[in-house]
Request: fold
Amino acid sequence: MAGFINYLGARPFIAIALATAFINVLYLNSSFFMLQVYDRVIPSKSLPTLIVLSILALTLYVFQALFDILRSRILARLSSHFDRKIASQIYRSVVVAPEQDASKVDGLQALRDADQVRNFLAGPGPSAFFDLPWLPVYLIICFLFHWIIGLIAVGGALLLIGVTFATNWATSEPSRKASDFAARRLLELHSSYKNAEVIKAMAMGPNLLERWQDVSDKCRTQSQVASDFIGGFGGASKALRAALQSFVLGAGAVLVINGDASAGIMIASSILTSRALSPIEQVIANWRGMSAARQSWSRLRATQKRLSSDSSPLRLERPKRLLEVEALAGGPPGSRMITFLDISISLRGGDVLGVIGPSGSGKSSLVRVITGVWPSARGTVRFDGAALNQWDPDQLGRDIGYLPQDVELFTGTIAENISRFDPRATSHEIIAAAKVAGVHDLILKLPKGYDTEIGDGGTGLSGGQRQRVALARALYGEPFLVVLDEPNSNLDSEGDAALTNALGAVRERGGIAIIIAHRPSALARVNLVLMMQEGRCRAIGPKDEVLAKVLCEVPKEDSTARVGLKAVGEEAANR
Reply:
């Protein structure tokens, strides 16, 4: 609870504590009403006294209900405040999750954790914890009634506290495992949803269903174990509280018979003991939600620390001269595997670098690190002399155009996707980027032009259309660095021509472009070539020199590679 107070501020919790104080004081109403009825009204047989006491008790019950409603409303608004405050951090954590470890981190876990904490704050769990500090007050009043009643109440409280600790010990590990399996189950289901076409085409459904059911079975098993313990301890606590109430009533009867207590004290003690132990029982009943919220909060705090460590540096001027890569090495985030090693590049405004090499040589990994999508294992990337960590990521991102190998568009219109969902984008800027990418006329032929909704992931467009719209997005705002990872994999001859013209436009305005390609047509406008093999630089320099060198080293029996390299040279000469 201390973590919530530090994060959300003390004022709402002070208000909850005050409301709880009034509620618990008013809970004494029933005990003292019964005490007065048995000790004052019945012996005196005074109906006016009973009426006055009844009106007073009814009034206090109304105030008790009002304070209870007030506390629940404060908790509901506290839950909303938490959700509003953490929303931006959740989104940032989802975006940076692949930087941590794309194979292990579930980016949506932060959202589920926030929902878990929010639901806990809005539920009955916090109320039980705020009621717990009033347990000693009730026990003291029990001792004031009679020391025997007080001892019985203390013994019952200790027994229920023991049950609470036993609940924590027995459910912590199953609850943690159930949470992990639930996250994995959702992640695999989402993956199947994203790849539904492949699953259907190749009849992978039964195999993946069996795999998903196995994870679901493990999730259910751990959830059942936790539920069994909580249900068992919860049932024991209810029976124990009922038994203690009866035991207090019996002890009170003995005291009444011996003349050591009145009948009113006997009844009031029974009611008061039950109320004193009620918060402990409520804690046990809500233990599963509390445990899940505590685990979720721990993960959220770790995420917050990770994000807060990424302080925004001083904003620099837009890069416009130089890109330097110094002895760079890297690989998938969170993995010890290095996919490329000791790559050094120096590019000036107007340079277009073509990166070639066999599959698995580290080309895509290299550009991911250069753009900051992945962190580097070692080495430095500099824009105009400033290393990546000296740039504000949001600022530098506007001067980087990136077209990944797997094109992803977002739910929205074509115009919104091209403008990177910039609310300040103008029609002129959007159309200019589309024209440079050679996709303007294609967009105009769509039903609603630039206002055409493309659906989830761009499903409303063909593969070639998605790639050309993504190219326009990469060119939007005339970024200094444009990185294209196999941008012509889905393009026809018209798209190839548009790509070539786009690279020419980047060169003419003094920008830098890096293009990864296997098809010769993509290298027509490059002036530099980097040949990679097994994660290392095989050759780098002017296109003609590198291609000639690589062609000489290609074995004669490898006819496919020789034909491809010759085609690059011939196409460049023709252009």
